[in-house]
Amino acid sequence: MFPEFNTTIANIYFSGLAIAALACAVGVLASRHPLNAAVLLVGAMLSLSGIYALLDAPFLAVLQVLVYAGAVMMLVVFVIMVLNRAREDALPRFDAWSVATAAAPLALTAMLAITMAKQHLRIDPAAVRGEPEPIAERMFAMGAGTNGWWLLFVAVGITLLVAVVGAVLLSKRRLDTPNEMPAPEANHGH
Amino acid sequence: MDPVSLFPLLAPIVLVLAGGLVALAAEPFLEGQAKHRWLPWIAVAGMIAAGIVQVFAPVGHVHGMFANDEARRWLSLAVIAAAACSMGGIQQSLDRDRFPGGESYALAAMATVGVLGMIASLDAIAFFVSVETAALAIYALVGLRRNRPESNEALLKYFVMGAVFSAIFLYGTALLYGATGSTRFGAPVLDGRGTYALLGAALMAAGLLFKVGSVPFHAWAPDAYTGAPVAVTGLMGAIIKVGAFAGLGALWLGLASGTGLPVALDAAVTPSAAVRTHLLEPLSLLIVISAILSLVVGNFAALKQTSVRRLIGYSAIANAGYMALAFVLPASGEALDLRPLWLYAVGYAIATAGALTAVASLAGTEDTKDDLAGLHGRGRQMPLYGFALTVCLASFAGLPPTLGFLGKFSVLGQVVAHGGVFIALIGLIAAVAGAGAYLRLAVQLWAGTPRDEQPLAVGTQLLTRWGVTLAAVLLIGLTALPALLPQARPAPAAVVLPPAAPAAVVH
Amino acid sequence: MDSSLLWLIPALPLFGAIFNGALSLAGAKHGYGPPRGLVATVAVLMPALSFALSLAAASQVSSLGSYVAFPMHQELFTWFHGAGLDLVFGLTIDSLSALMLLFVTGIGSLIHLYSVGYMREDRGFARFMSYMNLFMTAMIILVMGSSLPVTFLGWEGVGLCSYLLIGFWHRTPEFADAARKAFIYNRVGDLGFLLGAFALYQVTGSLEYSAIAEWFRTADPAALASHSTWITAGCILIFLGCAGKSAQIPLAAWLPDAMAGPTPVSALIHAATMVTAGVYLIARLSDAFVCAPDAMAVVFVVGCTTAVWGAVAGLMQHDIKKALAYSTVSQLGYMFMAAGVGAFDVALFHVFTHAFFKAALFLSAGAVIHGLHHEQDMRRMGGLRKQLPLAYLAMFYGWWAITGLPFAAGFFSKDLILEASFLGHVEIAGTNLAPMLGGVALLTAGLTAIYMTRVITLVFWSPSRVAPETQAHIQRTPLTMGIPLIVLGVGSLIAGFAWVGLPLDWLNVPTDGMAFLKAHLAPVVGPAQEVLAKATGVGHGEHASTAISVALTGTLTAALGCLFGWLWWRKGPKVVPEHGAPTAPTGFGGAWTFGFDKAADWIVLKPIIVIAYGIYWVVELAILGVGGWLVATGARALGDGYALVLQRSRLRTSLAIAMLGLAAAIAALIIFGSV
Amino acid sequence: MATESLMTPGAVQVLAAMLFGLGLTAAVIRRNIFIVLMGVELMLNAVNLSFVGFARTLPGDASVLGLLAPLFTIAIAAAEACVGLAMVILLVRGKDTIDADAFSAMKE
Amino acid sequence: MLLLALLLAPIAAAVLAALAHGKDADQGAGDAVHRLGLVLAFGIAILGTPLALGHGAAFDATWFALPGTDAVIHLKLGTDGITAWMVQLIAWLTPFAILGGRGVAGGRMREYVAAVFACEAMMLGAVLSRDLVLFYVCYEAMLVPMLVLIAVFGGPERRQASLWFILMTMLGSAPLLVAIWVIAAKVGTTDVAAVIVALRSGAVGDGTLGWLFWAFALAFAVKVPLVPLHAWQARTYSELPGGAAVLLAGAMAKLGIYGFLVFVLPMFPQQSAQHAHLFIILGVIGAVGGAVVALAQDDAKRLLAYSSLSHLGLVVTGIFTFQQIALDGAVVQMIAHGLSASALFLLVGCIEERTRSPYLDDHGGFASRAPVFSVLFVISALASAGLPGTANFAGEFLLLLGAWQSAPWIAAVGGLSVILGAAYLLTLVQKWCYGTAPEGRAEVADLNAREVWMVVPLLAASIWLGFQPGVISAYAGKTAGSYAEAARTEASALVPATPAAPAPPAKAEK
């Protein structure tokens, strides 16, 4: 906990942010237009950022806003706008099949939430506050006996490279050269 | 398992990665068909080097993050072999179809890097990063035929389900972290947090069972296998499953050991009574039910398939079931031993890659002739591919003398030894149904002359020929030398001790 | 002659068979086949040499005196050898084998000579002679075999040759049918032979004749009583084998059809030698048979019935060979009657005389057929005395012998059979049937005279009905055919004296000097007949009064029969059919003749065919086929059902199913686990 | 820290579970591919929350791990979003729709 | 090492043949492969011959340990009487399978020869192995090359046929595998001799032992096949090319009988004795029913299939009487049937190659048009019908005699198959050799030299063994007797009053 806040204020903040996050999540689930959903998702992310802050993780809170709500969601909105699919699309929010398929995930949600609610967790006083230094220290510790997270840091770099190459392969115009690509002969995926 | 220095252990991964990166970097500098002529060789060169290095890679771990042991060595070698073989298939397909781009080879290499990382992982986060590396590369490869509707559909289904189950796996990781305070496989569960552990393990297992295509998380498999180019199907089917099972095995043995020490995949671990009762028994039950469903669904649904890719898709489901039977619990006080699973996985990876590479060579332009009618008599036209495909199919069917038989034999044999006589019987009867599907294809391959007399369109074949030959030779040759399996029953050990010497080869 | 040379007796004809067979195959490509002279020389020489060797052996055997169990014996090699059964392949000549061997090789050689003339122009001459030689081999092995399996080798061997020779003219489907029928009827009997052999093995522990005889001769009554069921069963089964080979009811129907083969075949195999093998076997196993009175009764009754049936059927035939074939069946019945009352030596005597006169009859019939260019219908013959004098002479002697008119061969042998029957003791349900059935046999003798007279009248004595164009081209009987005709004809006249002896007192030869047959056979069948005599209190040949009265009655019956036959048919048949008209009798004759065929057809053949197709269609195709289809379809249905219900095309559905599974798992963990 | 406080680590986990479930539900039941992808993003966010929530209940190095793991999650989520959006572009180019149900030709 | 060499030589031969160079269509290349195959096959057969004289030291090497059990699987090879003669059968039939394939294989001689050798290797492995797992491996592995032989070189319905064959066989052997696992788990070894000792000394409970017996029996009953598990047989045999039929009908089917003799009887004497009547009845039903159904066939190969069903049914019957004589007969008949069935299938194959028709009604008059064929065909048919002087007679005689000793009705009913055998075989001979060719049928050339020489040695061997069956029964029969001894003891314990024992052998009096 931030030492500056007392419990009550923390409770109020937490309750508010939690409700906001849930409301935004429900909004994402229920919104008709993807743009609305995107905005609501950004709202949920910002709420979570607040909760991170409350949970003594300021570094993550900042990262959440910068990377997630900022970069990733901007990309999403950008694509939605580029494809111009936001308004013309008249897909129904829900249809009968949505209702039928909702049972399983909702039941799962309920079971998970109830199970979590039954558990008793206590805050450990020895928990380290989530500021950049301790995180960076561990992330980049390279000596013997360290945990080697830097290896994963490198690995994530590779992952991102793969993602970019993959995205290029999937969407690059150059690869669509219809005169060279034989037309599909038969749709045999049935 | 002792700490060892970084580079020798990770050198295979680095070499494959290097091959992929060089191929990626060289891609813009090559024009047209030259891409297909040279880039796969660059990637395969990295793999060959990696394979050689992997043979001599030390047993041990780095930072408790990545590890190597005899099982991981064999799995890695199988994955490298399968990937190299599939690389030939991809080369053949793309060259034949004059695909205007060479990124695929780099992506295939990256996927291999990811799977090698999955196999080597000792940590759930490391595993997750690896699995995503592999998966993202495979997603792109599945969607390679960009203007084919079934390819698009396969990509959508695979990607969305994959993303959902990634999240589920990760949530499981988070819960397990909550339970143990660590993301390492094998960390001891803290007092009073058993529920988080069980739930987390179950969710992680669900994520992994999705990756292997086990029922009920299997629906993507037939579609993705069908939508992807045949050669990519081979790559995907062969390597992802091996990696996912390596993860499941590490999770399983880790839960059982609960010491916080790095887990060797070929270790025999005797769980404590508490862990056994609270964690392993429920988990084993879920996995085994899923396994039985898988092998029934996979084998029987395969019977009616006409497309080879779809057939292999259901075969993937069925084989996932057989492999997951390795998680039948032994009697109380006896050690868990996953070595049969690794043997099976090695055989499966090689057979899948070999089979689909051969089919890729026989399937004609745009893989349009990969169904039963299209393959009619192709074995007579191209005996090498026909022979290799037949061997691989026999391996799928579990017929000796192939590795597929030895895998089924040891996995189901262990099931029987653990008291699951009826499970084994169900497995064997389903296997006969599956064999019907595979052998129908094999028969089709050899019976009669091809319906169309025109020669098949083929691309550069050198790599393919070596690939399928390698697959066939390995499938038969390794049977005589089941080096993965122990020579005598290992002493049950609570603490994991890696075997000191390289696997003894039978005289 | 040294006994180490015994193997030569069967081996010589075998060489001939292989030699001619190879020639035949090698020459098959050429139109005319291999050189006739070479073929004929080898084919006739080999049995003749066998005959010479047999003579040498027989003289040696008879000079060794009586009651030496096995005078000449050669063990060729160990046949069966193992942990279970050890059996030596042995050849033996004792007095019984010697007798059989002599007339088999002797008459056989003559018929080979005859065949040279008869078959010379046939395209398959070499093949024919090869089969004939092979038959000689098999028949020699049959009579020389020292144990049941060796005899069985010959037994099936002669059956095989019979099959091959009946179907010799292989282009005609009916001949092939007849051949197959003969083989399968024989196979039925052969199974009986085998099973009977098994039973005897079970009782005596051996398959060797010597050991079996020894066992029965030395067995104490208790042992016999305890084994009586299997002894009886074994003997009846053996008799089933004999019935198959010797065309007795119920396995008689094949023999008339077997006349499809060339006439020398009918003479050699289906009259003189092979068909008498059954009598030989019963005599060979006489020690066992006398210990099984029920089996003896069966033999006797079957023999009598067959004799009557054959005689009546013979009366109905238009085809000359068929008539003779039924006559053979009837005569064989007589032999079994004798065996059935325990007069094994008499039975063998009739075998001996029958070989001569029936061969003579068949060969002369062959000469007639040959002369008339393969005309076999007696209704289209007549008056051939002048054109075919040799054939007439042979048939006349044969007719004399078979009808039982005095002093020819049949007179003595048939008389002895009737006498034995009248004196015999065959108890069925407490009644001694022997004398009564002896009476039936006597009447049958009359029938025999009628049908034989009918044959000779229709062929030779009645006015000619031969078609004019044939009449002009009647083929003369060549010398190769003529010599055997004469020899056999004369043989039919004098063979009977082998038993009774010739009246040669004036040559200072004892009266019974030539009457060697009974004494000659005594070492083999004597003990059995003594056993029987002791058991029933009757022996044959001791009642002079009976002998004389039977002889008188028999002669009278025969004479009446002959007279009746001549009177009835002396003008020929009422209707002369067209050339090529069916010769099978119709009406009562047809019903009588083909009764057993029809019965076998309806009781055995048709049901088997119905069952065969029934099983094939119902069990094999329907049940197993449909069963397999069901399994396959069921397996597919599992897959289809899965695809129909669970494998949906929509992403949402797939995800929902997966989530359902996951939810179920979590629920299970919550409910049953420790969550 | 008062025990009656709403903001217990347990409550954080409940919130995380609910957000996870809502995201999952969105991914499962919606036809709009964008919203499906957003549901996945929501699930990943919920996982991060869970990590951070658990971090508070663990001492020392273990707690830092809970703050470190989300970094990887965020990176991977970005990578997934990247490929996912490329996929959407591809799909729209092919079939001119973002309806997931439109891509349901394959079955059996 | 002889045994190991015997196992490896055909594998090497298969590889050699597969690697042979040359274009498919090149007649000379095909002939070269054919000659190479013949030389190798005869070489292997000669290599295997010393086994019949009792040579062949056991070979043993560790293979792997079965996880979860104490069992260590060995590559263990050994020989005894039955093995030795099975080796003779397999190894000496192989060259004839190759000879028989020259016509049908055409341009694919390489594949054909390689598949034949692969099949031979696995069959030899199965009979040489002294470890259950090794046996099972070979037992299953032989299906693959056989599948190739059927699927590539078979008749028009080959696809269905090959699947019926392999799936039924696999389904039958699935429980066998489970049984082997259970044995490995409970006994801790898969060494055959050790397993026999352990199973008899009560290492496994009676209930388990019971179903283990059925598992073993089922697997072998499918292979023989025994009624009612024969649904694959007629379908498969009717599509077989002549050469492959030599392997399948001549040799492979015998492995089922081998399994009964070598595994079922010694491992489960009590169960064998208890259920002997069932197997006897099934065998007799097969013997008689098969022969009856053969009468209803219009396809020569189907007819021969049912003929095999009939003959091998009688062998199973004989085995389950446990009588020494019947066991002698069983081993003799195994070889004899291998020879005669091979000869018949090869000859029918010759006709089918020429005319594409194996139907009875499509041919006739071969006796005049193809005399050499006819002579050989008649001899083969008569051998198959058990004419004395051929090995088949020796086998059937001993089988029936042994059966009679056990219970006369078995011999009496089983003997009906001998009569019916003559009926259907002579019908076949009559349809094809007698009469004249049906309307519109082209001339059929007589056998050429290769075809003559692929049949004559088989018939010569059959006739030689017909007079010297002791060559087989003295060695193999003794082994069979020792395997069946325990079952015999159990059977006599079951029935206190045994039927009249055979009297002492007759050798005493001479």
Cα gyration radius of chain E (Å): 22 Å
Summarize the helix and strand pattern of chain E as letters.
Answer: HHEEHHHHHHHHHHHHHHHHHH
How large is the share of residues in beta strands of chain E? under 5%
- Derived structural class of chain C: mainly alpha
* Subunit organisation of the chains: heteropentamer
Strand runs of chain E, count: 2
Summed over residues and divided by their number, the pLDDT of chain C gives a mean of: 85
Q: What would the principal axes of the Cα set say about the shape of chain C?
A: globular
SSE order of chain C: HHEEHHHHHHHHHHHHHHHHEEHHHHHHHH
Number of helices of chain E: 20
Radius of gyration of chain C: 31 Å
Please outline the major beta sheet of chain E.
Answer: 2 strands, antiparallel
Distance between the termini of chain E: 46 Å
Report on this model:
The complex is a heteropentamer of chains A (190), B (507), C (675), D (108) and E (510). With 507 residues, chain B is mainly α. Chain B has helices at residues 6-26, 33-56, 70-97, 103-120, 124-142, 149-180, 194-212, 220-227, 230-257, 273-302, 308-324, 339-362, 378-381, 383-397, 403-417, 421-446, 462-480, and strands spanning 60-62, 66-68, 268-269, 336-337. In chain B, the strands form 2 sheets. Chain B has a two-stranded antiparallel ribbon. In chain B, a hairpin with a 3-residue loop joins strand 1 (60-62) and strand 2 (66-68). In chain B, helix 4 runs antiparallel to helix 5 (124-142), helix 8 (220-227) packs across helix 11 (308-324) and helix 12 (339-362) packs antiparallel against helix 15. Residues 488-507 of chain B have low confidence and may be disordered. Chain C has helices spanning 8-26, 36-63, 95-119, 125-144, 148-166, 173-204, 209-218, 221-226, 228-245, 254-257, 263-272, 277-284, 286-289, 293-316, 320-340, 344-371, 389-403, 409-423, 434-461, 468-472, 479-494, 497-500, 517-536, 544-569, 587-645, 651-672, and strands spanning 72-80, 87-93, 427-428, 431-432. Chain C has a two-stranded antiparallel sheet with strand order 1-2. In chain C, a hairpin with a 6-residue loop joins strand 1 (72-80) and strand 2. In chain C, helix 9 runs parallel beside helix 14, helix 15 (320-340) packs antiparallel against helix 19 (434-461) and helix 16 crosses helix 23. Chain C is globular. With 108 residues, chain D is mostly helical. Chain D has helices at 9-29, 33-55, 60-95. In chain D, helix 1 runs antiparallel to helix 2 (33-55) and helix 2 packs antiparallel against helix 3 (60-95). By secondary structure, chain E is mainly alpha-helical. Chain E is 74% helix and 3% strand. Chain E has helices at 2-19, 27-48, 81-105, 109-128, 132-141, 143-153, 158-187, 192-200, 206-223, 231-237, 242-267, 269-294, 300-319, 324-355, 366-369, 371-384, 391-406, 408-433, 449-467, 470-494; strands spanning 59-65, 72-77. Chain E has a two-stranded antiparallel sheet with strand order 1-2. In chain E, a hairpin with a 6-residue loop joins strand 1 and strand 2. In chain E, helix 14 (324-355) runs antiparallel to helix 19 (449-467). The interface between B and E is large, with 49 and 45 residues.
